[in-house]
Design goal:
Helix content is 46%, strand content 13%. It has 265 residues and is α+β, with helices and mostly antiparallel strands. It folds into 2 domains: 112 residues, Orthogonal Bundle (Arc Repressor Mutant, subunit A), CATH 1.10.10; 137 residues, 2-Layer Sandwich (TATA-Binding Protein).
Length: 265
């Protein structure tokens, strides 16, 4: 167990609520902009100079955009190490590393142990999800409670034919990612008990794994903290349309990444 978890923040509910430069930069870094366009491309997307962007991120997070992108690659690698049976060379490429040596060095620097140690620790906690040919099967954890039925009802009522479908508690859709199209199946049936959502991804390019995971977490609002939302909300004079009643504990704000101010009543 690592004492320091660099993947915990940003990505927390408080960060998802923020719309300042640092938070916007982190969302673009998570989407792989630095890998595709470099720091100049990131700065251009944000409308600031590279120097100002580096100064803001260093003041907020103690590291510049290159270091943050490197840490994000390490987080993507850890996700693959702990939840899939892929070989280490395949993981290094999928996470965006230029070589296996760079992958090993980065994981050791960020997490303090070798990639094989992370996999053995994950095996003691339950092991990887069995792989399906041509796909990646991942666990996407969340904070309890989790209203899976509410999400299923939300997506079923708004499914766009040819893009989305909901059947037997599984939400399927297509994704347009930086390097190609993808499809995903999100099994929400066991989610309230399991502590995670199982995502079955079929990617055109494995380099899109990091952006895909970031978008799926926003899609399901998995970084939300329902307990904090409930305790901080103000229940008075909050109008709710009769067709969309509050579902209570564990409700999420799909496709928004917790950009809401009121929690369950």
């Amino acid at each position: 167990m690592r004492r320091c978890q660099p993947d915990a923040v940003p990505g927390s509910p408080d960060w998802n609520l923020r719309a300042d430069l640092a938070a916007r930069a982190m969302r673009l870094i998570a989407d792989g902009v630095v890998e595709r366009q470099g720091v100049p491309g990131l700065a251009a997307r944000l409308g600031y100079s590279e120097r100002h962007l580096n100064r803001v991120l260093t003041a907020e997070l103690g590291a510049g955009p290159l270091a943050l992108a490197r840490a994000h690659r390490a987080h993507t690698a850890r996700l693959l190490i702990e939840t899939t049976p892929l070989g280490m060379a395949d993981i290094a490429f999928a996470a965006g590393f230029a070589s296996v040596r760079q992958f090993n060095d980065t994981v050791r620097e960020v997490y303090g142990v070798a990639p094989t140690t992370l996999r053995s620790e994950a095996g003691r906690r339950g092991g990887a999800v069995p792989a399906v040919a041509g796909t990646l099967v991942l666990r996407l954890p969340y904070r309890r409670p989790f209203d899976a039925d509410g999400l299923v009802a939300f997506f079923a009522a708004r499914a766009v034919a040819g893009i989305e479908s909901v059947e037997d508690g599984t939400y399927r859709r297509t994704l347009r990612l930086p390097h190609g199209a993808a499809t995903v199946a999100l099994d929400l049936t066991p989610a309230p008990q399991a502590g995670h959502v199982v995502a079955t991804l079929r990617l055109a390019d494995p380099r899109d794994l990091g952006p895909a995971v970031a978008r799926l977490r926003r899609l399901l609002d998995l970084d939300a903290d329902p307990v904090a939302s409930t305790t901080r909300s103000v229940p008075t004079r909050v109008w709710r349309p009769p067709s969309r009643p509050c579902r209570g504990s564990g409700s999420r704000a799909p496709s928004t990444g917790s950009r809401r101010r009121c929690g369950p009543c």
